[in-house]
Amino acid sequence: MRNVKEDQTLTCSSWQQTQHVMFQLANLCFCLSYLAPNTRRGILIMHVLLIFGFLMFSTWSWNTLCAPDIFLWNFMFMLLNMGHVLYILYKMHPVLFTEELEAIYRNMFLPFKISRQLFRKLVDTQYAQVISLRPGDTYATQNLTRTDRLGLVITGKMCVMKDKYLLHYIYPQHFMDSPEFESSKAGKDDKFKVSVVAVDPTRYIVWRRQDLDLLFVKETHLSTVFSLLLARDIAYKLYAMNERLVTQEGSKVDIRFPTFNTPVTSRAVSRACNSLRRNPNNHKSVFNCPEPPNRKVRIKYASHKDKRSHGPMKTVT
Predict the structure, then answer these.
(1) Which is more confident, 66 or 16?
(2) I need a surface site. Which of 140, 214, 282, 286 has the fewest CB within 10 A?
(3) Are 33 and 46 in contact (CB under 8 A)?
(4) How far is Cα 176 from Cα 76, in angstroms, rounded to an integer?
(5) What is the pLDDT of residues 149-160, one digit of tens each?
C-alpha cells in the first residue's frame, strides 16, 4: 500500500523500488515503436516492437505481479498486433510474373497505377487464357469468327489481311482485335471483317468479352485503363495502315485530313477558302488555300440589247 500523509493528500511520503526489468524493457519497446516512420516498412517495425512490448508486459504481469487481468489484456493486444504484422507481410509479398508478362505490366499497366495484385487477377486463368500459334495459324477468319473476345500479343508477330491484301502487322504488347472489340457490342453476332494470321511462332493472351465485362464491373479503374489502351492501339493501327497508303503520284496519304476528291468535301473546302479570302484578317499559314485558276464563265443573254448593256464575256478570278 502507498504511504499517504495524514492530511489525506495524494502526495507519496515514500517511493517504492523500481519495477522489474521486464517492465522497463516493455516500455522501451513502446517508446521505440512510436518513433517508426509513416511508411509501410515503418508501420511493420512499429507493430513488431509493440508485439515485443506487450509480450514483456504479459510476462511481467504473470510472473511478478501475478495479476491475471493485466496478463489477459496485454496478451490480447499482442495477438492483435501479430494479426497486423501478418496482413502487412501478405501485402508486401512480391507478385512475380514471367518475363513477357512482366514487360507487358511495366510498359502498359504500371504507368496507369495498376497494382501487381490487380494485374495478376487480370491474367489469371479465371479471366484469361494463354494460347500459342504456329506460323500460318489464324486467330480470326474474315466473315466467320465472332468478335466476342480480345487478344493481346505476348511474343511473335501477326498480320492483318483483307481479301488476301496485307493491311498491317501486329507486334508484341499490341492488341490483335481492338477495333472489332470496340465497334461491336455484347450480345450481337458480329463477325470479323479481316483475317488475323500468325507470321512467326506467337503466344497471346485472350479474354472473353463476358469475363472482361464482369471484371470491369468490379474494377472500374481497370475498365478506364483498358479503354485508354484500346484507343491508343486503334490509333496505332490507323497510322500503320496510313504508311501503306499512297496516291497515284506516289506520295503518302495523310489520314488526319479529309480527302479533297469527293464533291461534297471539295465544295465545303471551296466555301471555306472563299470565306477566308473575303476576310481581310485571314491567316494563310493556318489554312493554306490554293489559288484557283482563272476560268471563263459564258453568260447567255436573252437578246442583243442585253448583251450590249452588260458587255462581252467576263472572266472570273
Answers:
(1) 66
(2) 286
(3) yes
(4) 56
(5) 999 999 999 999
